[in-house]
Design a protein that fits this description.
With 422 residues, the protein is α+β, with helices and mostly antiparallel strands. The chain has three domains: 9-230, P-loop containing nucleotide triphosphate hydrolases (Rossmann fold), CATH 3.40.50; 232-364, OB fold (Dihydrolipoamide Acetyltransferase, E2P); 369-417, no CATH class. 23% of the residues lie in helices and 29% in strands. The protein is built from ten helices and 19 strands. The protein has helices spanning 50-58, 100-110, 115-128, 144-156, 174-191, 202-208, 226-231, 236-241, 369-378, 414-417, and strands spanning 9-18, 27-35, 39-43, 65-70, 73-74, 85-89, 162-166, 194-199, 211-216, 219-224, 246-256, 259-264, 269-274, 283-288, 307-316, 320-327, 330-338, 351-354, 361-364. Strand 7 (162-166), helix 5 (174-191) and strand 8 form a beta-alpha-beta unit. Helix 2 packs across helix 3 and helix 2 (100-110) runs parallel beside helix 4. The protein starts with 8 loop residues before the first strand and ends in a 5-residue tail after the last helix. The relative contact order is 0.10. Bound molecules: adenosine-5'-diphosphate and magnesium ion (MG).
Length: 422
Amino acid sequence: MAKSSGGNAFVEFQHVQKSYDGETLVVKDLNLSMPKGEFLTMLGPSGSGKTTCLMMLAGFETATHGEIMLDGQPINNIPPHKRGIGMVFQNYALFPHMTVAENLAFPLEVRKMGKSEREEKVKRALDMVQMGAFGGRRPAQLSGGQQQRIALARALVFQPELVLMDEPLGALDKQLREHMQFEITRLAHDLGITVVYVTHDQTEALTMSDRVAVFNDGRIQQLAPPDELYEKPQNSFVAQFIGENNTLEGVIKSIDGDKCVVKLDSGDEIDARPVNVTKAGERTKVSIRPERVEFNKSRLQKGAHTLKAEVAEFIYMGDIFRFRLKVAGNNDFIVKTRNAPDAVRLTPGSQIEIGWLAEDCRALDAPACDERARHHFGLCLCREHDARQLGRCLSGQPDQGLFGSVHCREPRHHHHLGRKLG
Ligand SMILES: Nc1ncnc2c1ncn2[C@@H]1O[C@H](COP(=O)(O)OP(=O)(O)O)[C@@H](O)[C@H]1O
Ligand SMILES: [Mg+2]
């Protein structure tokens, strides 16, 4: 019998692989260890293997290779209903012919609980999601948000120690989604339950989670708390997937400890921190956050490299100013500054110089073209929507969309896709 390697790990994936067809691996050597009480989110584009991982943990799919442990025990031998795991899905999956109360009582009946105890637990679970008055209704008589609350109550009613949620808020409008995000995290912490949450929405992942596992292509690209993920991305995919990010490509010219000089394809040289590169001559994609770009030269270190830039656009956003610059061949270089009393409003057409602290610019791997393409095509540039919300499914069709022919279904985001992608 396999032994847990994580000491106090409550949920553990050990070298887990999954293939549905015996040929392609959709989950590749997944390792993950969660302590009890943690709220962990699996975040990634559609098709990256998130649901598959959740299904293996729940026991509806078996791992092709590797071991999944729950509370120190391998779970292969435990049937799904004996794992004590609550589940919530995007499409609620409430039984339409049962009332709300009957829906909630169902998992308790399966567990052979007596009537009076059942009624008490159903009432408590309904109160927990503020739906105490709705026990007699059928799902069809509830709004989407209310149905999702009932689905949540049903997952919690038998007091599971572990709850799995697969894009549970995907069908709700923005306001309700944000409210439910708050309610779910509050409930999880109050009840002390361990949660594995799946989403493709990075804001949701960052705001709700203790740690986030960023998935791409069946692998965890990085597993870290939200701030670390945003501030210290370990590779180009994570830097691009989480938050807004500027990239420039080039070759490492020299490395000296935690500083390096990158010669960009435009010929310019910049300062960076080597992250995924080890020696001169390696190709790299550097990543710099819009709020870390400095255009006041006096605030840069002595001898810092600077780049010439042309202001292409100025966008007043109230609390911040947003500039689009043309820099070293990148016409979509974004800079954000706080609307402080002394903040300058640069006018389009003006020529400026920009720079940054070496530590704020991360020299990452230069990913292969197809990976870069998939990222761009799989995600609306607003980064809120993935391929499923785009006009058509883009996965596996990297050529489409190159010319901006895809449209996010959300009208207010059409302009994000109006420009050339990739
Ligand atoms: N039941 C299934 N049979 C065959 N292939 C599947 C099945 N479920 C998922 N896949 C494939 O596995 C990959 C990962 O899918 P999934 O885990 O659903 O990703 P995600 O939840 O991240 O969108 C995809 O390529 C998908 O087409
Ligand atoms: Mg999924």
